[in-house]
Amino acid sequence: MATRLERASEDLTAKARIRDAALRLFAEQGFEAATIRAIAAAAGVSSGLVRHHFGSKEALRDACDSFALERMIAIKEQAWVVGRLADPGFLASVYPSVLEYQRYVARSMVDGSSASAALFDQMVALTEQWAVAGRLPTTPADPRAFAAALVAMQSGLLMLHDHVSRALGADVLDAAGQIRLGNALVDLYSNPLLTAEQAAQARASYEQVRSRLVDGRADGDSGNDSGIGSDSDSDSGIEG
């Protein structure tokens, strides 16, 4: 039985079928290789109807970006904020969609287009909002840096999925590999890799580095003010 997050294809409007077909083909073939004609055929509509609803392939990709991000965020909110992760049937019901969106994001990131940069920026902004709003189980000192690092780690796994899949002996963009990788991520997220003492030491070390960099810039500025390295000094040195 289809859920609100995973509707049967016959329930979708023509515009939604086009978007979903484009999302699949962009993920499988890449944006450049996927054609309007192929997308229309996969959606069971004419090429003219695709252009009627979206205007251009670029606009269709924008719609796919927005939809994939919106659905991934909605699923995460249901799982972590609403608490549906405790429902044994929830993950099974949304898993096909999650894999599809991850394949799409992975291909988008690998393509390295301006659209992928915008998608990355949106994911960082949303994660930062969650951190600031206290919707994460931790309170980072620098929410923006925390969000950028977390999104980069997650996106990096998708971008490197060929290498990760080879290491695991299973495609991490298919169910078996994704389940194994997912369990590994649960271990990473639920078990600190640093003790509290090590974390304090690392922060103190970074603070020392920051202080030295600041002091170094100050010394450099005073050195320039004293005339060291100026044209007049260089000229006198050459002539003398």
TrEMBL record:
Biased composition annotated in UniProt, kind: Low complexity: 221-231
DNA bind region: 35-54
Protein name: TetR family transcriptional regulator
Keyword Transcription regulation: yes
Pfam families membership: TetR_C_25, TetR_N
Region (Disordered) residue spans: 211-240
PROSITE patterns (UniProt xref): HTH_TETR_1, HTH_TETR_2
Basic and acidic residues: bias regions: 211-220
SUPFAM superfamilies membership: Homeodomain-like
GO MF terms held by the record: DNA-binding transcription factor activity; transcription cis-regulatory region binding
